[in-house]
Design a protein that fits this description.
about 120 residues; Trna Endonuclease, Chain: A, domain 1; 5 strands; about 30% helix
Length: about 120
């Protein structure tokens, strides 16, 4: 399976996981020049949640949750600001979550990092 296909399957699993927990999906694969936000969702309390999805076949290279580097975090914050501005959501609470999918097992970290 190619990396792109694996990523799509992981994102589909993450969306299913979030929907099962009462989230609503606002956007998938939101694009800017800096990159892409995998999932933008709304939590039960109407918090906007920017979700980075990491997928792996095994844990031999470590948990994919830890592959969201400080550089990636900065990009995600930049893209989230663009999303908030574009959708006029300046006064809404938001957070950054990371979801990993390893062999079908979902691991979800809420508030994985904070924007400065």
């Amino acid at each position: 399976m190619h990396t792109r296909e694996k990523g799509k399957l992981g994102e589909d699993s993450a969306v299913e996981y979030l929907l099962d927990r009462g989230y609503s999906v606002v956007s998938r694969n939101y694009q800017t020049r800096q990159g892409e936000i995998d999932i933008v969702a709304k939590d039960l309390d109407n918090t906007i949640v920017f979700v980075e999805v990491k997928t792996a076949r095994s844990l031999t290279r470590g948990n994919p949750l830890y592959r969201v580097t400080p550089t990636k975090q900065k990009k995600l914050v930049y893209m989230a600001r663009k999303f908030i501005q574009q959708h006029k959501l300046q006064n809404r609470p938001c957070r950054f979550d990371v979801v990993s999918i390893v062999n079908g097992t979902v691991d979800h970290i809420r508030n994985a990092f904070f924007a400065m």
